[in-house]
C-alpha cells in the first residue's frame, strides 16, 4: 500500500490531525486496537516533541507506511536547537515504550523521528 | 499582613512568605477559623500562575473568566492538599492540578456537547463488542474485526474509538489526574516506587506521578516502566482495555502539561 503523507504547521492545534491519521493507518495495518491506541499516543508524543523545538512558521511532516506486519511512521520538522530530542525525559521514555523502535537524527537543522511498529498478534486476513 | 503580590515579580521575599504561609496552614486543623485568611492569601499570591496556565487555552473559545475561575478551583485544591514534607515546590505541585481543572472544564462542557448522540451510542456498542471479542480471541480485536462484528464501516469504528477520548466518561472515570476523592492521594504520597528511579527527569516527574490517583499511576507505571500491553493492564486491574486506553491518554496529557513549564 502506498505511503500517506501529512504536512501541517507546527502548532499544537494540529496534533489531533496527526493522531487521527495515525489511528486510521494503524487500522489499515490491521493492528489490534490496543496497539492502535499506542500508535495514536506515540504520534501524539512525537509530534509534540517536534513542535516544542520547532521555530515559528515551521512545518511538520509525517509519512505513514503500512507494509506487511509493519507500520512505519517518519516525522520531521525543523529544529530550533538543531538537536534530536533528549533521551532522558519522560516523553522519550513514553515514546520508546509505545513503539518497537524509534530512531532520531538531525540533518541540516531538521529533526527526523522514525517510529516502527510491528503487529503484535496474528490476525486472520 | 502585607498586600499579596498579585502581579509583581516572584522574588525571594515572596518565596519566603509562601513558605511561611504554607507552614502556618499545615499547623492549623481543618476546622480552624484562622485557616481562611492564610488560605486566601496563598490563593491570591498564586493567581498569576493560574493566569499563566489559563493563557495556554485562551484561544479555544472559552470565556477568559471561566478559564480563570476553574483554574482557581484547581489552585484552591492544591493549597488544601499540599504537603510540605514532600520537598516539592508549591508551584510544581499546583500546576498539574490547575491544568487538570481547566482541561476538565473543556471535557465536561465543550467536548461533551460536540460528540453526536449517534457516536456515543456506537461507542458503547464498540466497547461492549471489544470485550466480547477480546474474550473470544484472547487478544484485543482489530478495527476490521469490530466493523464486521457490529456490521458498520471501519471508519465508524475509528470515529467511535476517537470519540471515547473526547466525551465525558462514566462516573468510574470521574476523577481526572490530580483530582481524586479524598484519602487516596494522601495515601499514595510518600509511596516509593523503584521504577521512578528509571527516569532521569524524575525530580519533575515524581511529584506529578505522586499526585495521580492510584489507578492512573499504576497504569502509567505498568505501561511505560514494566512495558505491559494495555490488554495486560486491563486484565491486571479488572477493567476493560478501552478503559485503560482512555485513562492512559488522559493521564499522559496531564503529565505532559505538567512537565512543560520545567523545560
Question: In words, what does this structure look like?
Answer:
- Chain A is of the alpha+beta class.
- Helix content of chain A is 34%, strand content 32%.
- Chain A is built from 3 helices and 5 strands.
- Chain A has helices spanning 15-28, 33-52, 90-98; strands spanning 4-9, 59-67, 70-78, 101-107, 110-118.
- Chain A has a 5-stranded antiparallel beta sheet, with helices on one face.
- In chain A, strand 2 and strand 3 (70-78) form a beta hairpin.
- The longest helix of chain A has 20 residues, at 33-52.
- The mean pLDDT of chain A is 90.
- Chain B has 263 residues and is an all-alpha fold.
- In chain B, 67% of the residues lie in helices and 0% in strands.
- Chain B contains 13 helices and no strands.
- In chain B, helix 1 runs antiparallel to helix 2 (35-45), helix 3 crosses helix 4 (64-81) and helix 3 packs across helix 5 (90-114).
Amino acid at each position: 500500500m502506498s505511503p500517506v503523507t501529512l504536512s501541517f504547521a507546527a502548532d499544537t492545534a494540529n496534533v489531533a490531525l496527526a493522531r487521527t491519521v495515525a489511528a486510521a493507518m494503524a487500522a489499515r495495518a490491521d493492528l489490534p486496537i490496543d496497539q492502535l491506541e499506542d500508535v495514536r499516543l506515540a504520534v501524539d508524543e512525537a509530534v509534540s516533541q517536534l513542535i516544542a523545538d520547532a521555530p515559528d512558521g515551521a512545518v511538520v511532516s509525517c509519512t505513514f507506511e503500512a507494509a506487511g506486519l509493519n507500520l512505519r511512521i517518519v516525522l520531521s520538522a525543523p529544529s530550533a536547537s538543531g538537536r534530536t530530542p533528549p533521551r532522558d525525559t519522560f516523553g522519550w521514555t513514553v515514546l520508546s515504550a509505545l513503539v518497537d523502535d524509534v530512531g532520531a537524527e538531525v540533518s541540516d537543522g531538521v529533526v527526523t523521528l522514525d517510529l516502527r511498529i510491528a503487529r503484535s498478534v496474528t490476525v486472520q486476513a | 499582613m502585607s498586600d499579596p503580590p498579585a502581579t509583581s515579580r516572584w522574588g525571594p521575599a515572596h518565596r519566603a512568605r509562601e513558605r511561611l504561609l504554607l507552614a502556618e496552614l499545615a499547623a492549623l486543623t481543618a476546622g480552624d477559623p484562622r485557616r481562611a485568611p492564610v488560605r486566601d492569601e496563598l490563593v491570591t499570591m498564586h493567581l498569576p500562575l493560574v493566569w499563566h496556565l489559563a493563557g495556554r487555552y485562551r484561544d479555544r473559545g472559552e470565556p477568559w473568566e471561566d478559564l480563570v475561575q476553574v483554574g482557581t478551583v484547581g489552585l484552591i485544591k492544591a493549597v488544601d492538599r499540599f504537603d510540605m514534607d514532600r520537598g516539592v515546590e508549591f508551584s510544581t505541585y499546583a500546576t498539574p492540578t490547575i491544568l487538570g481543572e481547566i482541561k476538565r472544564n473543556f471535557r465536561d462542557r465543550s467536548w461533551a456537547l460536540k460528540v453526536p448522540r449517534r457516536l456515543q451510542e456506537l461507542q458503547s456498542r464498540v466497547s461492549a463488542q471489544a470485550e466480547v471479542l477480546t474474550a473470544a480471541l484472547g487478544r484485543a480485536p482489530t478495527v476490521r474485526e469490530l466493523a464486521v462484528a457490529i456490521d458498520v464501516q471501519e471508519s465508524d469504528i475509528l470515529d467511535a474509538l476517537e470519540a471515547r477520548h473526547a466525551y465525558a466518561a462514566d462516573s468510574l472515570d470521574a476523577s481526572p489526574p490530580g483530582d481524586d476523592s479524598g484519602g487516596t492521594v494522601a495515601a499514595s504520597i510518600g509511596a516509593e516506587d523503584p521504577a521512578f528511579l528509571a527516569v532521569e527527569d524524575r525530580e519533575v516527574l515524581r511529584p506529578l506521578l505522586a499526585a495521580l490517583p492510584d489507578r492512573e499511576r499504576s497504569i502509567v507505571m505498568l505501561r511505560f516502566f514494566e512495558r505491559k500491553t494495555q490488554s495486560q493492564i486491563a486484565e491486571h486491574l479488572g477493567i476493560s482495555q478501552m478503559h485503560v486506553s482512555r485513562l492512559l491518554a488522559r493521564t499522559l496529557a496531564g503529565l505532559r502539561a505538567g512537565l512543560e513549564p520545567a523545560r
